[in-house]
Specification:
Layout (H helix, E strand, L loop, with lengths): L1 E6 L7 H16 L4 E5 L3 E4 L2 E3 L4 H6 L3 E7 L7 H7 L11 E8 L7 H13 L2 E2 L4 E4 L10 H21 L9 H6 L4
Parallel strand pairs: 1-2, 1-5, 5-6, 6-7, 6-8
Antiparallel strand pairs: 3-4
Helix pairs in contact: 1-5
Bound molecules: flavin mononucleotide.
EC number: 1.-.-.-
Keywords: Flavoprotein, FMN, Oxidoreductase
Enzyme class: oxidoreductase
């Protein structure tokens, strides 16, 4: 089984990188039948913009489960992550377990990026994991990450593993709107 994690920050390394790294290590430690493959932006083109390698779409398409990780930027996801999402065909995430991991400076912004990602994931007909992981960035700026955050990451990982191991290969309908409106009439 393959978990592809998408590090959606154009400004590595940071708090999100630390959170994602702990999640990835936890999956490797506790789920040895899983391979973890991280995709990160490769080409910085401006202070908060970077683009993606040519194989990013293929690596997401081949995953059994995906984590989309983003810092909150201006009350939403990063433009960098959106650049990648806009390159994905519908089948890349259709019926696939996808978890949302976000960090922000302000606790009040806990749904800012998540709600936008949930809208986007419904375009794909993704199997969006019911519970997202959100953290205030200072949690991952501390020397020691507190036990509650680590427990949240473990539960978040387990959620994706259970969804993928039980539902992999299943196809859920009805088709999302994009499929219905582009279907050829017979
Ligand atoms: C361009 C930009 C916009 C941001 N917008 C918000 C925001 O709207 N709300 C918020 O709580 N934090 C915001 N932040 C803070 C980041 O979400 C926070 O510092 C996060 O930890 C950055 O990720 P990193 O530590 O992995 O680099 C913003 C940061 C940047 C650089």
């Amino acid at each position: 089984m393959r978990l592809t994690t998408v590090y959606g920050s154009p400004t590595p390394p940071g708090k999100l990188a630390r959170a994602l790294g702990l999640l990835e290590q936890d999956v490797r430690d506790r789920h040895p039948n899983w391979v973890v493959d991280r995709i990160e932006p490769e080409n910085p083109v401006a202070p908060v913009v970077a683009t993606w390698g040519d194989d990013a779409v293929e690596r997401i398409s081949g995953a059994d489960a995906v984590v989309l990780a983003s810092p909150v930027f201006r009350g939403s996801i990063t433009g960098t992550l959106k650049l990648l999402i806009d390159m994905l065909p519908n089948e890349a995430l259709r019926s696939k377990p996808v978890g949302i991991l976000t960090v922000a400076a302000a606790p009040h912004h806990f749904l800012s990026a998540e709600r936008h990602l949930r809208d986007i994931l419904s375009w794909f007909g993704a199997l969006t994991a019911p519970n997202s992981a959100f953290f205030v960035d200072r949690v991952f700026g501390a020397a020691e990450v507190d036990a509650e955050a680590l427990a949240d990451l473990r539960e978040f990982a387990d959620q994706l593993v259970v969804l993928a191991e039980n539902l992999s290969g299943r196809h859920f309908g009805p088709d999302p709107l994009t499929v219905r409106f582009t279907r050829k009439k017979t």
